[in-house]
């Protein structure tokens, strides 16, 4: 079984983990109602339901 000969330094471990932080979600304004929503999703606004230039979800 392979076993490391030496301990990795804190600096080396930190460099490896530098890309593991959570990223903020990409938001954009709905072109119809202006609500900030994540990209590639239907607008959750109850009066909108807009996606890709058309109404996908009927208003209730």
Automatic annotation (TrEMBL):
Protein name per Swiss-Prot or TrEMBL: Large ribosomal subunit protein bL32
Keywords: Ribonucleoprotein, Ribosomal protein
Family label: Belongs to the bacterial ribosomal protein bL32 family.
Gene expressing this chain: rpmF
The keyword Ribonucleoprotein is assigned to this record: yes
Source lineage: Bacteria, Pseudomonadati, Planctomycetota, Planctomycetia, Pirellulales
Listed Basic residues bias regions: 1-18
GO annotation terms (biological process): translation
InterPro entries in the cross-refs: Ribosomal_bL32, Ribosomal_bL32_bact, Ribosomal_zn-bd
Positions of the UniProt region annotated as Disordered: 1-23
Organism of provenance: Posidoniimonas polymericola
Molecular functions per Gene Ontology: structural constituent of ribosome
Cellular component aspect of the GO annotation: large ribosomal subunit
């Amino acid at each position: 079984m392979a076993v490391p000969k030496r301990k990795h330094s804190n600096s080396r471990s930190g460099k490896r983990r530098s890309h593991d932080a959570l990223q903020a979600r990409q938001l954009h304004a709905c072109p119809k109602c202006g609500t900030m929503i994540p990209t590639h999703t239907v607008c959750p606004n109850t009066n909108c339901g807009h996606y890709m230039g058309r109404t996908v979800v009927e208003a209730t």
